[in-house]
Amino acid sequence: MPVLSGASGAGIAEKLAPILDMEHVALESRRFPDGEAYVRIPPESIESVRSESVVLVSNTFPDSGIMQTLLLLGAIRDVRKGDLSSLKGEWSGDTEDVGPGVFLAIPYYGYARQDKRFSAGESISAKMVTEVVSRYCDGIAILDLHAPEVLEGMDVPIEFVSSMPEIAERLQNGVSPDFILSPDKGAISRATEVAGLIGCDFSYLEKTRIDAHTIEHTPKNLDVSGKVVAIVDDMISTGGTICRASDALRRQGATEVHAACTHGLFTGGALSRLANHVDGVYTTDSLPNPRASVSAAPALARGLSRLMEKVTHNG
Ligand code: R5P
Questions:
Q1: Which residues share a beta bridge with 180?
Q2: Structural domain boundaries enclosing 268
Q3: Number of domains comprising the chain
């Protein structure tokens, strides 16, 4: 059984395949001069893609990642159905429909943060992405989705997985924190998990987002004097949330402040901004970035195993 990847998933797919006892098959993906995507399952991999179950690792980020994921899923579907319509060249392989068994692993699920309508007429983008990709697969594993509740009741089974166990291990071995802080209420469950695994104290801040670049925390007394603190979140984008939380921790006497998250987006100079506020930054490789030191593969493997078990059991 193969773990397939296009451009965005190759690194993770390579690590994921041996954990699942599968082989990694890289699919072709490139861009036309006008920027449009092209994908192809190489002829020598077609039989492999027609095997019982296949996993595709692909991010739905940035916008081009959504298109590439769709084209890859379309190519996989057609090859598995034996659909050769409009084929200009020759093909002498099998063409019977091999049936369901396509699982999508999404390390970074783009568009996750718009999970509500803040005013009439908005699109709930977090839902739209799944509504589209779920037409072409039999189940999805998503890593540390911002707010999983938004995907309740979708047409295919979804496994939500988390890299917090691996992040806890990385923090424990790297900085051995005394205290874990969630920078807002949304990250409480992730940060408590990390604190529980490390066996250290935990608290959280209440955050108000004024705009994309400005956030405010409600003042709160934290027992961090003389302590090494790690702030844990699902993602870092501009770095504003982490920088403000770090300022609050330093004012209250924290001796070291580190930041850890699953998804390191690091937009608009975030890494330089963070360098002035925290002593270290740790992320998974769900998005390629210079601070990625935790593999997303083990978490995705846990979700995919559960998903395949569930689908096989119910099928
Ligand atoms: C929002 O609730 C998320 O969990 C993150 O806290 C947020 O996306 C981080 O964004 P930024 O780095 O721009 O503050």
A1: 202, 230
A2: 164-294
A3: 2
265 alpha carbon – ligand 1 mean position (Å) = 10
Asked if the model's pLDDT at residue 142 lies above 70, the reply is yes
CATH number at residue 96: 3.40.50.2020
pLDDT at 215: 87
Give me the residue label for tokens 């568009």.
Answer: 111
- Nearest ligand 1 atom to alpha carbon 241: 14
Of 236, 267, 273, best ligand 1 pocket probe by most atoms within 8 Å of the beta carbon: 236
pLDDT exceeds cutoff 90 at 92:
no
Distance 236 CA to ligand 1 centre (A): 5
Place of tokens 């998903």: 307
Query: In this structure, are residues 243 and 281 in contact, taking their beta carbons and an 8 Å threshold?
Result: no
Q: Which of 81, 207, 220, 310 is catalytic?
A: 207
Q: Do 193 and 307 belong to one domain?
A: no
Question: Under 8 Å CB-to-CB from 6, ≥6 apart: which residues?
Answer: 27, 29, 39, 56, 58, 68, 69, 72
Between the alpha carbon of residue 130 and those of residues 126, 136, 145, 301, the distances in Å are 7, 10, 12, 20
Residue 315 reports pLDDT greater than 80:
no
Task: Assess whether 207 carries a catalytic annotation.
Answer: yes
Q: What is the mean pLDDT of the chain?
A: 95
